[in-house]
Design brief:
Elements: H1 2-21, H2 23-56, E1 62-67, H3 73-86, E2 91-95, H4 97-108, H5 111-115, E3 125-129, H6 141-150, E4 155-160, H7 163-204, H8 206-214, H9 219-261, H10 274-299
Antiparallel strand pairs: 1-3, 1-4, 2-3
Helix pairs in contact: 1-9, 2-7, 2-9, 7-9, 7-10, 9-10
């Protein structure tokens, strides 16, 4: 175990020596990779702030169940038990056609117009308030409940006011997919930049590598410093990208505060939590390691 640790510490030290030999080039590569990582990191931060809002939102969609006009009152009121069996936890409110007409006259000011109709055109109805849904992801269940209610005898139509719930879920799904595609594209860019960086380093150390092979150095001994260089490049670039995102949140929050006050809200974008930050740093270091691995396997194999 001590030998293994000593070898890896030596490889890390060698990588740091090579970085110190050309700090300007290394810093420039960090900047290029950080720019590529900043956009998906910002997207992850935005989604991380929006996701709790959508999940904690009190989603209580309502279904309006309208009874056929020729349905007897006893049958109309008896539908409450059937509706309860479909939505056991829902709040069910029956509104008679007479009460609906009174509410229409009181709210719309169209009493004179309604009076000219000669008879009440409104049907008996139910309002079913579904309180079982706690997030937008469960909005797809509403359609199946509405279909079951439409199949009940005496029901004319069922209106669902939860379109906004499904729109929100669909929008978040599109944003996640777009972020995934963007992250995959920019991850390829990161791997390509690291690949090119390590390739140039291999070319400048070609004579040194050949001498090491002549004196009996193993391939793993020669490869390790390049792996550490790639991982360090990815790790440093990830840190710079996260720092840039954190700085960008300040002007964004000032703009968001002005907008949020219009809706009596105090919403602000918060930085990622330590676990998410560590995960992104590990991901960026892994991308650097992958780029170095691909380069080493391609170019150093030619020196055998």
């Amino acid at each position: 175990m001590s030998t293994w640790l000593r070898h890896h510490l030596f490889a890390l030290g060698s990588a740091l020596v090579h970085v110190r030999r050309a700090p300007g080039s290394f810093l420039f590569n960090i900047l290029v990779v950080a720019i590529a990582l900043a956009l998906p990191f910002m997207g992850v931060t935005l989604l991380d702030n929006v996701r709790p809002m959508s999940e904690q939102m009190a989603v209580e969609p309502e279904l309006s169940v309208f009874i056929k006009a020729d349905t007897p009152r006893e049958q109309a009121t008896g539908l409450a038990s059937s509706l309860r069996s479909i939505a056991p936890t829902a709040k069910i409110i029956f509104t008679s056609r007479e009460k609906a007409l009174e509410q229409l006259n009181a709210k719309s000011g169209l009493s004179d117009v309604v009076a000219t109709l000669g008879e009440n055109p409104l049907p008996d109805s139910y309002v079913v308030k579904l309180n079982a849904f706690q997030n937008a992801a469960e909005g797809s269940k509403i359609d199946s409940i509405a279909d079951q209610m439409r199949a009940l005898p005496g029901v004319e139509s069922v209106q669902v006011d939860s379109a906004w719930v499904k729109r929100l879920a669909a929008l978040l799904g599109i944003l996640r997919l777009a972020l995934l595609l963007l992250a995959a594209t920019l991850a390829t860019v990161v791997v390509a930049v690291v690949f090119n960086t390590i390739r140039l380093q291999v070319m400048t150390q070609r004579e040194e590598i050949l001498v090491s092979k002549l004196i009996g150095a193993s391939d793993s001994f020669i490869h390790r410093p390049f792996y550490y260089t790639g991982a360090l490049l990815g790790l440093c670039a990830g840190g710079v990208a996260l720092g840039g995102v954190a700085l960008a949140l300040q002007p964004l929050n000032r703009a968001i505060a002005d907008f949020a006050r219009l809706y009596a809200s105090e919403f602000q974008l918060a930085p990622l939590d330590p676990m998410a930050t560590a995960g992104l740093l590990a991901l960026s270091a892994s991308l650097g390691l992958v780029g170095a691995l691909l380069c080493v396997q391609r170019h150093l194999s030619r020196l055998n």
